[in-house]
Structures
1.
Amino acid sequence: MAILATNLIVENYRNFPSFELEIDERLTMLVGRNAVGKTNLVEALQLLTAGRSFRRPSPAELVREGASSCSLSLNLTGEGRVIDHACRVAEGKRTFLRNGKRCRAAGMRGVVPSVLFCPDDLDMVKRGASVRRAALDGFGVQLNESYARLEGAYERVVEQRNALLKDGALARDLIGAWDEALIANGAALTVHRLALLARIRAYVREFYAALAGGEEADVSYEPTWDTEGADVIAELSAPAERASAIERVHEHLARALATHEDEEFRRGITLAGPHRDEVRFSIAGRDVRTFASQGQQRSLVLAWKLAEVAVTRDILSRPPLLLLDDVMSELDAERRAAFIAGIEDGVQTVITTTNLGYFDDEALARSKVVTIGHGQA
Ligand SMILES: Nc1ncnc2c1ncn2[C@@H]1O[C@H](COP(=O)(O)OP(=O)(O)OP(=O)(O)O)[C@@H](O)[C@H]1O
């Protein structure tokens, strides 16, 4: 049985003095003109399910202009439980609460994970590898605490190692200890990524073909140390071989670091490791950044999001809350219909739109339509 988000209440949050949203167990459509606050509500739902927002706001930005504090709360109901997730901002500080008890942002994760699509996600195909790495890690962190710990630890090691590299030759005696930490955390993080990407990849291929009338898309992982361009996903991602995969990545990474040492000291940055690995998308065998149309790029990102939904269900045995902000523009009618059909039954979904005309009668019949107007803001 799923746990569902039932109602969101916000006070003095962004452009809302006070607002309550009752969320349908299947499909809720937030309809309204530009700038009425639809994305703000989606952001609130992400904050209260994932402990983070795609906009990365400072606490003060969440508070309505002219107010001194704000509060957001979301009821999650199911499996015989009611759980209240809340976030408050006062005096410039953000606090999360679970059933009234203070917790860290990570305390918002794990009950109902969320998968969000927003127009900025198109950066996943348009921009550099860091956006794709962040998408993969952001998803992994929600699903698995050890992924979250590893990602945080690795990031700190890279920062500290880079600081030492910038100190120059004097630091050469000290770098060894940081090499060890980088290689150990880096190898484990790489294998976590490979295992997750292998799961996502299978669904991306399936969903993209369904959205794009059979056209083929793919996603691959290219580590900085993989100089031969081998298909490491297939080789290293089988869960049963996790320990030996980590050992093998460990060796590759150690060798790569040794090769780059002089250049690293010259440039003051760490040149090998998961923080520089590439996640590459292709359509019909060609790199999407230079080749794909807007509609193809959007379809590929949507296929990735549907893949996140399916993988969440596979791993946690329950579906996530699916948040779709302005998802339909730039898709033709066929792709729009295929996308809506691709949302599995039982996946609680919130969609924002300026135009209900994007949705067919069947989708409208099974959804709760909530009009957001300036009166509420
Ligand atoms: N802290 C704040 N105080 C007051 N208003 C804010 C605050 N933060 C954001 N806003 C306002 O909220 C408004 C609505 O933003 P939002 O992005 O949710 O609109 P939207 O309905 O999704 O619009 P669109 O259809 O154009 O994407 C913006 O005009 C913005 O200026």
2.
Amino acid sequence: MSIPGLGQIAPPQPTTTSTTRTITLRPFWEYRFEVPRRTGPTTVTPSTTNLPTGTTPSTTSATTIRLTTGKAERDGTELALNHTYAFPRGTRARILTYTGATLEVAGELPASERVAQYARPEDSPEVQVLNLHFALQEARKKAKERSRRDGGRPEQQQPPPGPRVLICGGPDTGKTTVARTLTGLATRAGGQPLVASLDPREGMLALPGTVSAAVFGTVMDVEDPAGGFGVRGTPSSGPSAVPVKLPNVYYFGRERVEEDVPFWRTLVGRLGGVVRAKMAADLVVGESGLVVDTPPASVAKGDIEMLRHAMMEFAVNIVVVVGSPDVQAALQKAWGSNKTLYGEPITFLPLDQSDGVVPRDYEFTKFTREAAIKEYFFGDAKRTLSPFTQSVGFDDLVIFKTPDDAEEGYDNRPDGLERAEISAEMSHWTLAVMNASVNDPLETIRQAPVMGFVAVADVDEDRRRLKVLSPVSGRLGNRPLVWARWPEPYINLLG
Ligand SMILES: Nc1ncnc2c1ncn2[C@@H]1O[C@H](COP(=O)(O)OP(=O)(O)OP(=O)(O)O)[C@@H](O)[C@H]1O
């Protein structure tokens, strides 16, 4: 991927080698790959696979995959036959087939690749996910029957909506992949499920540091490094490969929930309200239900209470615990005998962790975070966006910041914001533009939905002016901006 104006993305190297290979997948086999993060020599991890060799020079800067026969999908979203999909740098993904398929893999050699082979379909961890999907489809069918039969009742007696599923488990167990797959499969079956992401490290359809929810009523972008949950799925000033989703986004501004548990709980409460309203307002959305992706949980760290809070706010009636029996046991003990606000029992389902899940290290998550920020402002290889650059006087902007943790009394401050003095320290940070007025109480501003993000390209303290990049044009002065602690300013966007 090479985006004009971004100095830190290395240009394609003419010396890069590529292979054009044919990969044959039997039913339930998966082709797993990672596109290199940088250009340069790459090595392929040897494996017990049917990966052929054969090298031809190429300048293509991404790995491409074409489905040439059969049917295959990426996390629930089908690949079109004979369409060439280009996967950008840093993509880690798998292409799975239920019935057998042939893929043509070309372009840059993946940094690692293997074919996961299963002697019998039931050996694949995906069978459990598929069975769960079918069970959810049954529940959606019943919700539809109920809402057609009892939908006209007064609000308090409304029937329960479709299944509300919370996906949880330890770190790197494949939670987001399961959430994405269930969403893709539901959308493919004609549903319009709501999806909520409560993990601020990832940021669904938004920059990292946020929690968000959106209706997934249309197909997801197979080429998105985040498999359809990334920033390219959100409205922008450019065209989009697939219809965009309209997320409700709240800015947490920190990496981990434990850094400010009360504020995370507040935002989850707000998101829960949005989700309940959307389910009540739209029959198809209500019947399709909800999928909630959660931050990694550890019993030792006391995260059970965090999950319990999310279960309550979203009236969850199915809890899927991926690869973490201890989390399941603790949740069931704490919450197993409770009922949802619709009076339904709560079902706990264990799922095996797929052996394909790759733990992500610091460098990888930093790369994906940077890539998401760049993509938000500049687009991707297929869709170049031109961010609007404006020079603004210090006195024309109202910026608030979260005070340092060390500050006295911080824990007791209900608003958690203070007016920021603009300084060179703000250079290269992204700021959230809040859907509030600069005159609103600080608490209201901090909990307001996010309209979008801007990046501070430069601060000229002598002239008291800032250079600000925004995805669209428009005056910023009447909207409060929030400068939080995360994501940190790794990159100079104007290079
Ligand atoms: N079957 C698979 N084949 C190949 N890669 C996979 C597979 N399942 C998951 N991955 C990859 O493993 C990584 C971790 O998966 P995922 O994000 O689903 O885990 P998670 O439990 O949500 O992580 P976290 O604890 O950080 O929230 C991702 O890069 C994902 O694309």
